[in-house]
Amino acid sequence: MEAGSLQERADSFTNETDIPLSYIVIVFEGTDGRPPNPAVAELYWDAIGSPDFPVVADTEVASLASTGFNGVNLAGKCLISPQMALLACTTGHGPDDWATDIIVEREG
Do the bridges between strand 25-27 and strand 86-91 make them parallel or antiparallel, or are there none, so unpaired? Predict the structure, then answer.
């Protein structure tokens, strides 16, 4: 999948495969290292170009325990099926080919 904003990546993947793809960003830490509040998520949403997908504040930091992502290496990325099953997690920036390959294998 080509690089670009997350929204552009999702749109490109869906256009190429006819398989719906959407992102959600879960902010688990504020700039001060403490759990975020909704205002932190709103600022992040604005900073990444006000995408059509949700950006939420994990005020309880439950996403770390729920996904197995330890919060150390950023960005943490997890792939969740439409049935809300956790399929895989990794870290890093850039293209999400690791995830799109899994999606195509499962849905294509």
Answer: unpaired
